[in-house]
Amino acid sequence: MNNWWKSGGPYIWLNAGAVSVSMVMVFGLIVLIVIRGMGNFWPHAIVQFDYQANGQSETVIGALRKTETLTAQALRDAGVVLPEDQALVTRHLFKLANRDVTGRDFAYFIENFMGEWSYPKALTVFERRQWGDFYGFPKALLERGEVIIEGDGLDDALWAEFNARLERANNLAEEIRHIERHEIGAINYQIEQIRLDKRRAELKNELTDAVLAELDQRREALNAEYAQLQERLNALASQVSRDAIVMEVAGGEEVTIALQDIVKAWQPNNMSVMSKVGFYLSDFKDFIFGYPREANTEGGIFPAIFGTVTMVFVMSIIVTPFGVLAAIYLREYARQGPLLKVIRISVYNLAGVPSIVFGVFGLGFFVYIVGGTIDQVFYPEALPSPTFGSPGLFWASLTLALLTLPVVIVATEEGLARIPSTVRQGSLALGATKSETLWKVVVPLATPAMMTGLILAIARAAGEVAPLMLVGVVKLAPSLPIDGNFPYIHLDRQIMHLGFHIYDVGFQSPHAEAAEQLVYATSLVLVVLIVGLNLTAIYIRNHLREKYRAEGD
């Protein structure tokens, strides 16, 4: 036994066991995220049943969300009347939707008081732009308040006409959003630029009558263009509000819903497996490329994906040259001594500083001091409204670059240290200068290590949340940092971020049950995004490694 311990075998098994347990935990977490997240897009069956409790009876329509078993005594303590000999009770959480009608979106129902479950094929689900989902039975289709067709959800004529008119309403709504977001947005941006040009001329004492006339002419042209767009919007608004549908909800009440308020409609109890698969893929695509609604609890996450990727790219562009140059100086040029040891210790300690401290530093130094100075020097016409003196994409990227700088420095130094001294000596012996040896021999061979540092930096930066809340990430950004307005890339704009989106939906949502699956789905997208960025960097690193290895051979 003593010989076995001395041989190191137990430590090998201990390390193997620790690695195995870690892999199982990581794999289990990913499986949980995939199951919970991807299940958010499947068109689940809608149940109808009668519920009788406390002397009251109601008809319930809803989608089963989860089932749990409790002790009967816990429910008795809450005032629920149950048989004395019953020890355990099963209850079901149903998504009821229709919260604008009933005032509740989710509710628990005890199995003791539930009648037989049925799955009416005519039950229809609406995803709405406001108030969440809606469950009910179609009864009539209206055009400007007049009934044009009646029936039920299984009436092919009603369902076909409804889908045709819904597609028309969605196309008109999309055209309205495009005009408001892009065309009118571009006009507003140009009008703001005219105001800034006028203020700039005032500050320089160059506001002559000719300049003022030119600015007025530009403004009048934009106002005329805006008036034309407003006329188009009014005409489209009149068309999109034309149609509505009458729905019967649980209990027999009829509710009229305008088609312009409906995003999509489906009948899950009347769909084949292939139809559900097609719906699933379409809904997942809308989630990835759509824009958020209802305080981020509905709609898509495209702005958050775009903001995360853009921030990571800008951060990588900033941190890579600074980290590499710092590592080259410390390893190749700096004189070894106490001062260099202090610098290295400081770099190592910097890697252990809590990320929120970087956020506070970024807000105080980058945003208020550097950004405020930039505004005073380059954008005085915009003051007191800040341009770079407020949180934005550039400051968020710069803060993360500072946060991940030690990782790049350490990885690059390790790569430089692994290059044999004989390589340097051989280059110098052939007549190359020290700088030529460094940049043409040593640095290319250390490129894979630099990429390793960048991979670690990307992995950490993409998942950070705390510092970003202070330096540029917001709950809902009105526009993307890249658009068709000069200078096209707006580093001063605030952005959305997947990590902050998860925090906001998971902890700040007024409807926690509705947000649960959305949190898992967004987490899955963030994990896939980080893995994708890392795999891209790993591919580049391996390609460079093979390239220089082949050149060395």
Entry keywords:
single chain; 553 residues; alpha+beta; 4 domains; six-stranded antiparallel beta sheet; four-stranded antiparallel beta sheet; 16 helices; 12 strands; 14% strand; globular
Would you give an account of this structure?
The chain is an alpha+beta fold and 553 residues long. It has four domains: 2-36; 47-119; 133-289; 302-552, MetI-like fold (Orthogonal Bundle), CATH 1.10.3720.10. The protein has helices spanning 2-7, 9-38, 72-77, 99-102, 156-203, 209-240, 273-289, 302-333, 338-350, 355-378, 393-417, 421-429, 434-463, 468-471, 498-508, 512-552; strands at 47-53, 56-71, 88-95, 106-110, 124-128, 133-143, 146-150, 243-248, 254-258, 262-266, 292-293, 298-299. The strands form three sheets. Strands 5, 6, 7, 8, 9 and 10 form a six-stranded antiparallel sheet that branches. Strands 1-2-3-4 form a four-stranded antiparallel sheet. A hairpin with a 4-residue loop joins strand 11 and strand 12. The longest helix is centred in the N-terminal third of the chain and has 48 residues, at 156-203. The chain is globular.
CATH superfamily of the largest domain: MetI-like
Sheet of most strands: 6 strands, antiparallel
Rg over CA atoms, rounded to whole Å, is 31 Å
Mean pLDDT over all positions:
88
- What is the CATH C level class of the largest domain, in words? Mainly Alpha
* Tally of domains: 4
Q: Kindly report the CATH topology of the largest domain.
A: MetI-like fold
Our count of helices gives: 16
Shape: globular
Point out poorly predicted stretches. none
